[in-house]
What does this fold into?
Amino acid sequence: MTAIERRWPILVGLAVALIVFDPLLTGPVSPPLLVHHIEHSLILLLAGLLGIAYARSHPRRYGDPTALLGVILLASLSVLLMLPDIYSGVDAYPILHALLHLGFALTGYFGGYLAERYSPRAGTVWTMLVVMMGVITASGFGSPPPHL
Amino acid sequence: MVPIVGKQLVILALWLALSTIVVVVFAWVVSSTRRPAPQGEVQPGGYRLRRLWGWFYGTLLVAAFLVTLWTVPYAWAQGSSAKPALVVHVYAHQFAFTMPQKLPAQTPIEFLVTSLDVNHDMGIYSPQGVLLGQVQAMPDYTNVFFFTFPAPGRYIIRCLELCGAGHSYMFQPLQVYQPASAAAPLARGV
Amino acid sequence: MALGNQGPVELYGAEMGVTPRWMVALSLCIGFGLIFFLGMVGGVMKAAQGDIVHLSAATFYALLTLHGAGMIATVVVLTAVAHWHFLRRLLNLRVEVLVFSVLAIVWGLLAAAAAILVGGFGPGWTFLYPLPFIGNTWPVWSTGLFFFGVLFVGIGFAIFCIDLLASIIREYGILNGLALDTIFPGLRRADGKVAPPTVIAATMVAIDGLLTAAAGTVLVIALLAHWAMPAFPVDPLWIKNLTYFFGHTIANLTIYLSAGVIYAVLPHYTGRPWHTNKIYAISWTTSLLFVPWAWPHHLYMDFVQAPWLQIFGEASTYIATIPAAVVTIFGALLLVYRSDMRWRIGSTFFMAGLLGWLVGGVAAMIDATIPFNDVLHNTLWVPAHFHTYLLGGVFLFVIGFASYFAGDDAPTPPWAKVFEWLFFIGMIGFLAMFYAGGIEGVPRREAVQPAPGPLLAMIGTVFAGVLLVGMTGLLIEIFRRGRRNGASRESDAT
It folds into this structure.
């Protein structure tokens, strides 16, 4: 294993922490919905990679059906967390906003971990799925029609 | 029966012709299995044919695509050539269209179509029953649709998008009259 | 992202006591049962349009929703299971994932059916927002239950795609799963193993399927959010795009799942191998990229749609036909041409299915051409074309596969040939009435149609009856063979 392969999880972890706690630094701001959704997808992606890395460094028995159940629930949760009703409620409070980001990070991490535990490389595919969902939500999830 | 004319005739002829070619090719391939030959003997010729077919088909698609670009019904494509003489608002709702009951023939009309509830679709049927054109009616949006009634008569406006239990009954007559003078300017914003 | 190898992979599965062969057989039985029931529902709808039986408008639209949603989900199950049958050994797929996927989809279908049959939910299977929520004849709970059902169908399909793609990445990697190593020598494996065509098809389906499942999940969650909290805003244009992105692509993918089956089965009947080469890599990468962009052709008549989407939608639809017409169907014809083809129920249905795919495809392309769409959109032309390649294409492949799976070595007995003829005559007559209706401008999805709709529907009902009789006879013959051959195959089933 090269130094980069050993150290990238640390760098990714730092990046996740930076995005998660970004609201504490920037204060109560509301970026446009699209930027917000993309930002949340980025947290899911990076945290998912960390979950996969952890699962691969601690190989266990594969195929636990409860892992599959967790994978499904977490994927659905990731979209539920994208409900703008939730953001608009927390945007004004940096601490709540950071906690919401933490929710995304945990969802991504455990989703990636459990999927990779279920079957090798499934974590990668699960992370692809939630990022796809994130990008699709960015196209207009929770946006009112432009004329209203 | 509704007469098959205009675009519908072109479509039917095109589809029947292409489907007939497909059926003939399949029949030929199926009948060829009566005189089998080794794969090595037929494959090189097949690959050459595939290359030809690929180029032919690709060229056909590009040509079809370019032709259609010039004939799309959208406002942005019609440009200044389609100066409307009349602007008509259409409000679709369960289960009727709120719009004028009489409109002039041979007059370019700009329809501003929207819906007050669910998705509808305003289909224009000629007095003979031929579908001449259509536009969707969507809540919160206004679709701009240019249309010129070719001749006077009793047209039917019919909903073409499933909009609830009364969908089948969402149609109404539209009287199209011969304007006194085709060139006479009409008031805008009916 | 390699963090060390995990050593030998130890898997659950055997303890479930489900053999792959048994699971495929069970899924086929469930699928054909559903097809038969939903086909009867379709026949009743036709009879109602032909004034043979009377249905209230609300009942008609509920049955329409059941027929559409049910058939799509069933055909997804049938084609996925058929393709899985060949992929299992190539990719070491696990049977319990298939069990889970099929259970989730069937469970979702049952929930949706309850919403429809008990609650009378009936906005069509495309459930275009805001119809499920406005001025409707069904209770609020049925709207929610239906969307939960669709969510389960999406989850079942997502699980299937996740496991498939993960296995492809393990065995080949995404790029070599598409056989891109035939183009780029740098990707070549040391052992020289190249993905066979059926795996290439699976790679495309898994990636686009994942995207479709993602779209479906976001779509349904948005609708469920609006259902639970009516203040949750929904943009009708956005949700319409998403609905067709999900609906069109999932229906379209059944033909690509079928292509994977064709690659595996036709060599069996022709005695000729089907090899991977550069052309397959290029063509499936093209399908992968353009099939998900074909959905805007459902929104041509929404003139507010962004112009680039309208134009790009038409271009993508055209481009997506090239791999099918030039590579898969042409390749199949070349494989069959002057081969020592054994004509059985399976091979006959595969050839007929390829024909239906092309004829339906031609009709689809005409409809997807913007200047023609304004006289075809939402007329019977639309169900005409998709019935041609779902009933006259995908479903024929599934029957062909079932026949192959049940054991297709004996020549077709004369009485089964009679049912074959009944099936094809019924199907062609039934489809012809749809096309005639489309050309005559008869709208689709109408409980009561303008003339000449009722007359065409009356003739169509007769043909549908002939079709159902033929189908029943054929399925009984296939089932009989399966039972007879099943016992002898059980020994080599793993």
